[in-house]
Amino acid sequence: MTGWSAHDIPDQSGRVAVVTGANSGLGEVTARELARHGAKVVLACRDETRGRAAERRVKDRVPGADVRFAPLDLANLASVRDFAAAFPEHAGGDGEGRLDLLINNAGVMALPPRRTVDGFEMQFGTNHLGHFALTGLLLPFLLATRAGARVVTLSSGFHFLGCVDPRDLDMEHRYRRWIAYGRSKSANLLFTHELARRLTAAGTDILSVAAHPGYAATNLQTAGVRIEGRATAERVVEAANGIIGQSPERGALPTLYAATAPGVVQDGFYGPRNQVRGAPGRSLRARWTVNDRTSAGLWAVSERLTGVSYGLLEG
C-alpha cells in the first residue's frame, strides 16, 4: 500500500484515548495502534468477556501496552452515564482528568427491527444517540485537555442512503434496515458537523471529525443476517468480505489518520481515497450532512431524547 500507514502515526505518549467497540475489528485495531504509539487506551465495550479478551490480545501484540477494558453499552443510556461517571477511574493514574482522543467507533449495521433499552430504534439509538450522550458527558475531560484533543466519529459511505427524518426517527411507519443504517450514519456526520461548529464558536481548538473504513471485512456485515438465522445470506456476505473487503488493519487507517495525522481539518471526513479501499484521504460527503439547520435540529432532538446537554459549549 502506498500513502499514509500506521507507521506514520505520531508519538502518542502521554495521551489518553477512549475507543468504543474496541473488542474486535476496526475498534481493536485502532486501540492497538494507538497503544503501540504510546497512548493510554480505554477499551469501551459492551461485552466484558470479549472486551477483556481484546485487552489480552492487544497486550500480547504490543508488550507494555497501557490498555484497559471498561464496560459501556451504547444501547443503554444508564450504562453510558455510568461509564462517564467512572471515566477518571478508567483512565487511571496520570491520565486522570484528561481525554485527548474519543473514538466513537462502535456500531450496528442493518439489523432486523430492534429497540434499545430506552426504546429507540437500535441503529439510530446505538450509532448516534449513544455516542451523542457519551461525547457530551465526556466533554469536561476534552475541554480540560484542549490542546490537540479530537473527537472522531465513525460514519459510512452508506450515509448516502438517506438523511435523518425528524418526523420518524425510529422508522415506525416502514422499517427498512439499510435505510435505517444509512440514516444513522448521516446522523453521525450531522453530529460531527454541529459539534465542530459549536467547538469553534466556543473558541476551543478541539477537533470534531469523521471517518469511514470503506469496505472492511469485519463481523459487522454478518451480524444482522446471523441474528435472523439466514445461513445462505451469511455465506454470501462472508464471500463478499473475502473478495471485496480490505482487512481491519487497512479499514482502521482512516480512523487513525483522523485521530492523529497533522493537517486534519475541523469537520473533515476521511476514508479510503477510492471510497472502498486504499490509503486514507478526504472523502465524499452528502450535502445534507453539512446543512446547519438540519444539524442543529438533530442536535436539539438528541439533547431531548438523551437528557444530555452540551451547556459547557454555550458559555
UniProtKB/TrEMBL annotation:
It comes from the Bacteria. InterPro entries: NAD(P)-bd_dom_sf, SDR_fam. The keyword Oxidoreductase applies. SUPFAM superfamilies: NAD(P)-binding Rossmann-fold domains (SSF51735). Keywords: Oxidoreductase. The keyword Oxidoreductase applies. Gene3D superfamilies: NAD(P)-binding Rossmann-like Domain. Belongs to the short-chain dehydrogenases/reductases (SDR) family. This is Short-chain dehydrogenase. It comes from Streptomyces varsoviensis.
